[in-house]
UniProtKB/TrEMBL annotation:
This is Indoleamine 2,3-dioxygenase. It comes from the Eukaryota. The keyword 4Fe-4S does not apply. It comes from Symbiochloris irregularis. Keywords: Heme, Iron, Metal-binding.
Amino acid sequence: MQCLRHGPSGPISAGHSKRSRKNEVITAVASLTPASVPARARHFSAAWTDQLRSPSGFTERSRALGAQGFLPSPEPLQRLGPAYELWEKALDDLPKRIIAAGSGSLRRWLSELPPFPAAALAGNAPSEAELWRAMLLQSFFAHGYLWQEDGKTPDLLPASLAKPWCLLASCLQVPPILNYSTYILHNWRRLDPSKPIELGNIVCLNNFMGGLDEEWFRLVHVEIEAKAGPAVASIMPGQAAAAVGDTEGVERCLQCIAEGISAMCVTLGRMTEKCDPHIYYERVRLPTSGWRDNPAMPNGLLYEGVWAEPRQFHGASGAQSSIIPALDGALGVQHPAGWLRDYLATMRLHMPAQHRAFIAAVEVGPSLREYVQIHSELVPVYDACIERLTAFRQQHSAFARNFIAQRSGKAEGEKGTGGTLFTPALRAMKQATAEHAISR
Ligand code: HEM
């Protein structure tokens, strides 16, 4: 395997002033990619690109999305094979090691683990599920190393953790940091496989510290993803209907979107049943932090043995879920230009490549909004979608306030896990959504 440090684009300064954040992430991931990734591990993005180029590919993917939206299908791999048992057992032990941490014991233990054999896995035609499982192992080890030991946060990740992690990230075409897809989408299982993906029948695969609040926080997201499935799957058939003037088909799609968002709101409303805002603020959110605009890591993170300069990336955030951007795209909801839109564009680079491609395809598809503007009988159902999306954003922003801003005592100034000043930003997004109602 070629040394990752000498990727084709060479080292880049983390603080390059002229380059946008999105471009920085793209360049960083690209510098890990072609030469350093074994050819057989590159087939995922290629397969998806091919599928998305053909109209029947869209329909196929759309149908597949129907079952469980952006949740992986097949469902997340619970364990890698026997060759990887050493790292699986270490991950089983991580919550105990976090509880026992002190005087550097957790960091010592993690940095002394044998390096995960990422190159062997990547060179062995892994399934996408195996790559995500390996990514989960490495992301939990790295974030445990950085955030779960008291004292000053280190600004260097040892090569034994950094190198395999970066290789896996490059196979999956995402930056080497914990993302929503790893933390939420690939981190659950059903208790009874014959029953639906819903609270009461799902549990997490792995945790940092563990406990009720941490698991529930993630499981609410999983149920929301499942509830959004039919709405997301209806988008492309709805756009196809608009293209051929099938008003009933467009109406069916909008109806499905409105119902889906209502179901998402019901699930979001269950967050406080078992996730206490205080525990979330004090314990759950810390290990999901990133190293961009984070005062605890002002220079970002040096990935030892990978890049010569430190890198800055945003941490895991619900803004990396593909549901809302897909619905915004379907309904033609646009947000004002500015840093917030740039931030959301950067968040897309943390999504699985095929989800990014799906959203991009929706955005350039036939406009449901323009169709409704011509066929005024559809205005009530379109406006119902806008009203419910506004309500979801309203409810979500109240949660963000209750779970973060009010705990910190800095109502306007607190930053979210993604490193943004979120209170005014979320308010602006809700307002922009509401303004898309046609009958307003
Ligand atoms: C207690 C639970 C939650 C809290 C405290 C919370 C917090 C936040 C914060 C602070 C942001 C600002 C951006 C950032 O910091 O990255 C954000 C953005 C976002 N979150 Fe959440 N979130 C929660 C639950 C959810 C859930 C369940 C979803 C559903 C998938 C979600 C989806 C989003 C989206 C899509 C954005 C981008 C802004 C938008 O499009 O409206 N969040 N969240």
